[in-house]
Task: structure prediction
Amino acid sequence: MRYQFIRAEKARYPVRLMCRLLEVSRSGFYAWLEGGDSRELNDRQLLRLIREIFAENLETYGSPRIYRELRERDVRCDKVRVERLMREHGITPPRKKKYRVTTDSNHKNPIAPNVLDRDFTSSAPNRRWASDITYVWTLSGWLYLAVILDLFSRRVVGWAMDSRLDTESLTLTALHMALAERMPDRGLIHHSDRGTQYTSEAYRDALKARGIIRSMSRRGDCWDNAVIESFFATLKLDLVVRRNYRTRAEARQEIFWYIEAFYNRRRRHSSLDYLSPVEFEARAAKSEAVA
Result:
C-alpha cells in the first residue's frame, strides 16, 4: 500500500516527493512509521491522521470514509475508535441540505415516459445516465451548471456551465461532452426532468441520432431524479456554501476542480464500497478483463 511503498523506497527517493505523488502527508507517513510493525497508533497519532484526512477532503468525511481511508493507508484501527475520537474532538462534516432546481415544465414540447422509474442501478457503464441543472450564486450573477452522471459509477461524465439558462445550449454542451468521452452504444437510457432544456427539438434530435432512449421524471417529483439531486446537494455542501464567489470565472474554476479532481477521482462513495467513481470503474473493468 502507499505507506508501505514509501517505507520500502525511502532510501532511493525523497519522502517528500513520494508523499506528494501518492497524495499522502509526510506527517501522516511518519505517524504511521512510529507505530512500528504492528501499525497500531496511539490516540494522539491516530487523531493527527484523522485531522489530516479530514482537512485533505474538504472537511466533508464522516467516520466511515475516514476509517476506509485509514485502512487504505495501512493503519490498523477499528471503526468505534475512529468514531470516538472524531466525536470527542468535534470533527464533524456539515449536514446535507435540500436544494431545489428551477424547472420550467409549462410547455407543449413532447414529454418522455419515466422509463427509469426510480431504479438508479446499472450493471455496466454507459447504460443509464441521469442529467439535471442547478445554479450557483456569484457577486456577478447566477452561474448555471448542467451535469450528466453515469448511474453505474456515479461519475460525472458530462458537464457545462453558463450564465444563461433560457436555451438548450447548456445541456447540449454537457451532452456532447459525455458522448465524446464515453462513446455509448445505442440503447442507453437518458433520464432528466421535464424542463425545456431537455424537451427542446435540438436536444431530442441529439439523443435520437445516437439511439438514446429518453426518460423523464414526473412533474414536480424530485425523487424521480434523486441521484442527481444528491450530487448537487453534495457539491453545494462540500464546496459552494463555503465560498463567496466574486465572479463566475472564479466559481467555474473551483467547480471544474471539484468535479474532475476531487469528486470523480478522490471522493469516496458509500454506494460504491467507499471507492471513488474512477477507481470503481477501473476495478470493474479489471474484473471483467480477468473473467
